[in-house]
């Protein structure tokens, strides 16, 4: 989206944030906390009815600088429509929060997710860890090959032997790939600050409401990253608001 938005002088002093999956949980709280700081928030959600209801909830709380726009993150024409809307109304994005998740509830069925957030290491395979850490050489092709190998090992029942994550394995591998890709984008776009952040173990539907933090507390951890000062870190991973290792 941000690639398609230029800068208009009349909006240069207005901070604009776009939050995907902003109709509930952490996404809604991120919208609330950003708006409370005077930032204009474009709350997006796949379900128009739920997204509009979330905006009304925030406006009833006195936050009138929140706008709804429908967005399905898997729909390319819909993404283009949002980009056109942002370009026409604001001409820029200052903050983009990629919060929306795909099918989170379907694959996490019980409160044992705590093990997925407390496991000290995601990858045990040292060769893979070195490859992921070498961001200067890491490419999309490398990531694709890594994920293809993971799928083969998954089908062969060889995850533990190969050092792949064992707890909520597919979910963790998605996180690892996303984090690595964000670093590649950060390397190519040095004028932007692009970071990944884990809000902590939050009570939301993805954790079957078994977390230790409220959505507001999780959102607060994210805002520590979203509101980093000009010239702040980029291409980094943050856990509970603090910089942490990627793998």
TrEMBL record:
SUPFAM superfamilies the record matches: NAD(P)-binding Rossmann-fold domains
One family name in Pfam for this protein: adh_short
GO cellular component terms attached to this protein's record: membrane
Molecular function terms, GO-annotated: oxidoreductase activity
Keywords associated with the record: NADP, Oxidoreductase
Gene3D superfamilies, per database record: NAD(P)-binding Rossmann-like Domain (3.40.50.720)
Domain of life: Eukaryota
Keyword Oxidoreductase: yes
PANTHER family membership: (+)-NEOMENTHOL DEHYDROGENASE
Family per record: Belongs to the short-chain dehydrogenases/reductases (SDR) family.
Protein name: Salutaridine reductase
Lineage, top ranks: Eukaryota, Viridiplantae, Streptophyta, Embryophyta, Tracheophyta
């Amino acid at each position: 989206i941000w690639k398609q938005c230029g800068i208009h002088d009349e909006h240069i002093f207005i901070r604009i944030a776009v939050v995907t999956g902003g109709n509930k949980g952490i996404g809604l709280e991120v919208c609330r906390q950003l708006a409370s700081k005077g930032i204009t928030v474009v709350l997006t959600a796949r379900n128009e009815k739920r997204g509009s209801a979330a905006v009304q909830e925030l406006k009833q709380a006195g936050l009138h600088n929140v706008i709804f726009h429908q967005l399905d993150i898997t729909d390319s024409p819909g993404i283009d429509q949002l980009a056109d809307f942002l370009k026409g109304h604001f001409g820029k994005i200052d903050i983009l929060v990629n919060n929306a998740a795909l099918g989170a509830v379907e694959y996490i069925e019980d409160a044992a997710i705590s093990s997925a957030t407390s496991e000290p290491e995601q990858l045990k395979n040292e060769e893979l860890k070195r490859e992921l850490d070498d961001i200067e050489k890491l490419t999309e092709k490398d990531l694709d090959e890594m994920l293809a190998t993971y799928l083969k090992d998954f089908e062969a029942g060889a995850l533990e032997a190969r050092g792949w994550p064992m707890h909520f394995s597919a979910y963790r591998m998605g996180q690892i790939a996303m984090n690595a890709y964000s670093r590649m984008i950060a390397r190519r776009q040095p004028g932007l600050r692009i970071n990944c952040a884990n809000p902590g173990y939050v009570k939301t539907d993805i954790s079957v409401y078994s977390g230790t933090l409220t959505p507001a507390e999780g959102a607060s951890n994210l805002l520590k990253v979203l509101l980093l000062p000009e010239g702040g870190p980029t291409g980094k991973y943050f856990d509970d608001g603090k910089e942490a290792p990627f793998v």
